[in-house]
């Protein structure tokens, strides 16, 4: 990985099977020559959003370094999801793994299949809490506010319970 690698933040979530193990497997599969997992937040138990009649989720956010372009990184994330059996029966439904590209350097991308920054990240505590844990001063490229401030201002007040887990990426490598 060269010094000019991009920094990206990826949201992880799961509420099927063993959600914590699914998230850890996704991190292991992402960590490769193409994508280096630098660190990951703690894992949090959170309530579902959108469709609430389903099991709670386990969520986290990972910081990665990559030479891949944003659409290539998205493709790599989708490969990981497929390899872990992602099958979402309907929008916001239960899933074995969900990987969302939240931020890619300070780029603003608005393609049909990819929007960066993630358009709903500033409205979701289950994204903001773990992201603030690993990058509180990071500035949202569109809103021009840091993540810690966005967390203070969000209207979402759903609980996010930090789990005590063995997370090999909790401390930056």
Give the overall pLDDT as a whole number. Answer: 93
Structural class: alpha+beta
Shape, per Cα inertia axes: globular
In CATH, what is the homologous superfamily? 7,8-Dihydro-6-hydroxymethylpterin-pyrophosphokinase HPPK
Low-confidence stretches: none
Strand content: 15-25%
The helix tally amounts to 4
Task: Write down the CATH class.
Answer: Alpha Beta
Order of helices and strands: EHEEEHEEEHHE
Count of domains: 1
Return the CATH topology. Alpha-Beta Plaits
Rounded to the nearest angstrom, the radius of gyration is 15 Å
The amount of helix comes to 10-25%
Outline the biggest β-sheet: 6 strands, antiparallel
The CATH level-2 architecture is identified as 2-Layer Sandwich
Oligomer: single chain
Number of strands: 8
Q: Report how far the terminal alpha carbons are from each other.
A: 14 Å
What would the keywords be for this entry?
single chain, 173 residues, alpha+beta, Alpha-Beta Plaits, six-stranded antiparallel sheet, two-stranded antiparallel ribbon, 24% strand
Kindly describe this structure.
The chain is an alpha+beta fold and 173 residues long. It has one domain (6-161): 7,8-Dihydro-6-hydroxymethylpterin-pyrophosphokinase HPPK (Alpha-Beta Plaits). It is 25% helix and 24% strand. It has 4 helices and 8 strands. It has helices at 19-30, 70-83, 125-134, 147-153, and strands at residues 6-14, 35-40, 44-46, 57-66, 98-104, 109-110, 115-116, 160-162. A hairpin with a 4-residue loop joins strand 6 (109-110) and strand 7 (115-116). Helix 3 runs antiparallel to helix 4. The model has no long low-confidence stretch (mean pLDDT 93).
């Amino acid at each position: 990985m060269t010094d000019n690698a991009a920094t990206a933040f990826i949201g992880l979530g799961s509420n099927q099977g063993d959600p914590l193990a699914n998230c850890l497997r996704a991190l292991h599969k992402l960590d490769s020559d193409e994508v280096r997992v630098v660190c990951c937040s703690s894992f949090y138990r959170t309530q579902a959003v959108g469709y609430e009649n389903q099991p709670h989720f386990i969520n986290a956010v990972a910081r990665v370094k990559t030479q891949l372009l944003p659409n290539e990184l998205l493709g790599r994330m989708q490969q990981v999801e497929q390899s872990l059996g992602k099958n979402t029966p309907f929008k916001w439904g239960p899933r074995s793994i969900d990987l969302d590209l939240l931020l890619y350097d300070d780029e603003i991308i608005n393609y049909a299949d990819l929007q960066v920054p993630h358009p709903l990240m500033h409205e979701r505590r289950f994204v903001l809490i773990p992201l603030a844990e690993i990058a509180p001063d990071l500035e949202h490229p569109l809103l021009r506010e840091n993540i810690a401030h966005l967390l203070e201002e969000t209207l979402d007040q759903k609980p996010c319970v930090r789990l005590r887990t063995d997370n090999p990426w909790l401390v930056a490598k």
